[in-house]
């Protein structure tokens, strides 16, 4: 049994707390609001996210990161990508954080806008954490299904293979299993870029396009995000696996996906602001799309789907206008 601390109390944080508890570990969630922490500790349910899921007695919560991190043998980061840096800067002032040698597992799929840095890079820089302690979890991670103990596979990508193997054992349950890989770059680029592709697929669905069209966007989206990942040093095998194809298919196909449903709202004619107001949580692809576009341009990678999504989000195009632009591209070999 390990003592685990999850920093964040959203959908994925809540689902992963249940995974760790199912694996027999004690879990402390560090929440932002006292009423949420109190409900998790006393009722073992998160009133804001997945409220019908009983987290069990091994899961408690606090608003005090010092209390949450005290004695933690595994630290899990589950805060929004664009809030990661400021959050870590506050943590880095705490002796309990600075003195820890526990592995740090990131559940966050995004690229920081402004710096175009991957989350593990932000953790290392802003949190002053040795890269050897950092790992990322990626794959088809729809939180609701995992919380319901539906069978799910993921990957843990770690800079240090020993850390990856340790974390693999920590989150092993009958319903949740992970594979280990050493391609942190590929896993993070796939996890972030697929959210942008899911926005495009959602727009197509909102416009009423059928399975052929949506499958085409998913397939070309995979090709484009893999090209970016490889240009940045990722491994081709990562994009054919759970962190690439697996995560992309789940995110683009499921109504549980925030990015897919956000795109659908845009496809139905809602403005970006209206779609934000109707959304129940953060669609990471909205902010990440700009960073993914900038990375693609910097590495000389052609990502027309991402360019189209950014044009819609910036008000320079509409979902209906984006599709003809993609269809009018010059024919060329598929590879």
Binned, the helix content reads 40-55%
Low-confidence sequence ranges: none
**CATH H-level name of the largest domain... which superfamily?**
NAD(P)-binding Rossmann-like Domain
Give a quick account of the main beta sheet: strands, pairing sense, barrel closure: 8 strands, mixed
Structural class: alpha/beta
How would you state the average pLDDT, rounded? 94
Write a structural description.
The protein has 335 residues and is an alpha/beta fold. It folds into 2 domains: 3-182, Rossmann fold, CATH 3.40.50; 192-327, Orthogonal Bundle (N-(1-d-carboxylethyl)-l-norvaline Dehydrogenase, domain 2), CATH 1.10.1040.10. The chain has 17 helices and 10 strands. It has an 8-stranded mixed β-sheet, with helices on both faces. Strands 6-7 form a two-stranded antiparallel sheet. α2 links the parallel β2 (26-30) and β3 (59-62). α9 (184-206) packs parallel to α12. The longest helix is centred in the middle third of the chain and has 23 residues, at 184-206. The chain starts with a strand and ends in an 8-residue tail after the last helix. Catalyzes the reduction of the glycolytic intermediate dihydroxyacetone phosphate (DHAP) to sn-glycerol 3-phosphate (G3P), the key precursor for phospholipid synthesis. Pathway: Membrane lipid metabolism; glycerophospholipid metabolism. Residues 183-323 form the Glycerol-3-phosphate dehydrogenase NAD-dependent C-terminal domain. The active site is at residue 194. NAD(+) binds at residues 143, 258.
